[in-house]
Amino acid sequence: MQKIYINSLSSICPPKGDAPDYKALIPNANMRRRMGRMLKMGVASGLQCAAGVEVEAVITTTGLGCLADTEKFLNEMLDNGGQMLNPTTFIHSTFNTLGGQLALLLHSNAYNMTYAQCGHSFENGLTDAALLLGEGRRNVLLGGIDERIDSGEVIERRLGCLDSDAFRGEGAQFFLLDTAPTAASAAAFVDFSTFSGKMSREEVDEWIDRFLSDNGVVSGDVCLTACGGSCKVRGERMAFKEECGEYPTAVAYGLYRAASELSEGYALVYNCYLDRYHSLILLEK
Amino acid sequence: MEKLIEELKQHLIENLNLEDLTPADIDAEAPLFGDEGLGLDSIDALEIILILERNYGLKIDNPAKGKEIFYSVRTLADYITANRK
């Protein structure tokens, strides 16, 4: 694949205590007052990442969308017998609402796409970004966003979607991707890959070895492994889900941390969600 | 009438998420829409229709009169007073 550079990146990770000044980041009070937590996180993170750049595509990715607004909308539907429903919570219950808000605030009528595909939402958005950049587009804004709500966590635990020792996290990470580097480039993608299905620990390690070998990289070249699942560590280990928690687009936080920390050589991001959504991202400085 | 106006202001703050405002900040005579008053927009108009339906059992039968009824908190209160059963 052609070189794709991360020229800007931003993160809001509430489990780490991130509490931005949303009034300063989203000065339009009429827009801000309607936004739930997830929208505020996503818009603030996206605007920070794209500051000063004319983006040619906005790609947002989320596993479950604006859960708080969706819950409110569904409760109102029950309370009011399906009648007299609030337009705002309905609008925000749709998954592409963040992409729309970003387009409005960035004054961008360019390509705008949302991926909501469970544990591979972010990876599929990344694939789309790579294809767009391959077609010659510049400055693609890609983000991974999910939020946690109390009732959602109860349901996820009941359905076995969260390990007993995992904490349910949330966050909003954005990346400005381009085929040309800048002085501020954090890292470049070498390759990425996904696998859907169950894999044993041994199979994961074999898959990673094959992935590295296909890219002409040996284990010793990898300075940092951002682990969002169980795998053999190459270089320094960063268990990123201990910081951001478990959620469908947590891999975006892993990518953010790996790209931020990488000072030389290669960084590998391995993520596993629900035991069956595996992904690998290889970065180089 | 003044009690109804205070009640309406509270409904507006809660339903439109006017997070920085208190009832005292809302001028009952000022326009609700446009740049001069609260600066509400068309989505807020839908929310106000819901406030009237849910809390006062009122529907706007004649949409042409909407602009007049929704002009300010006071005109809303006038409409409720005149039409509430």
> What is the CATH H-level superfamily of chain B?
ACP-like
The helix count of chain B comes to 4
Largest interface: A-B, 11 and 14 residues
The ordered string of helix (H) and strand (E) elements of chain A is EHHHEHHHEHEHEEHEEHHEE
The counted number of beta strands of chain A is 10
Shape of chain A: globular
Would you identify the regions of chain B where 5 or more consecutive residues have pLDDT less than 50? none
Spatial extent as radius of gyration of chain A: 19 Å
CATH architecture of chain B: Orthogonal Bundle
Let me know the largest β-sheet of chain A. 10 strands, mixed
What percentage of amino acids of chain B are in beta strands? under 5%
CATH-derived topology of chain B: Non-ribosomal Peptide Synthetase Peptidyl Carrier Protein, Chain A
Please indicate the percent range of residues of chain A in DSSP E strands (runs of 2 or more): 15-25%
Q: Tell me the radius of gyration of chain B.
A: 12 Å
Question: Can you put this structure into words, describing what you see?
Answer:
Chain A has about 280 residues and is α/β, with parallel strands linked by helices. Chain A has eleven helices and ten strands. Chain A has a ten-stranded mixed beta sheet with strand order 3-2-4-5-1-6-10-9-7-8, with helices on both faces. In chain A, helix 4 packs across helix 5. Chain A is globular, with a radius of gyration of 19 Å. Chain B has four helices and no strands. The relative contact order of chain B is 0.19. Chain B has a single domain, classed as Non-ribosomal Peptide Synthetase Peptidyl Carrier Protein, Chain A. The chains are: A alpha/beta (about 280), B mainly alpha (about 80). At the A-B interface, helix 5 of A face helix 2 of B.
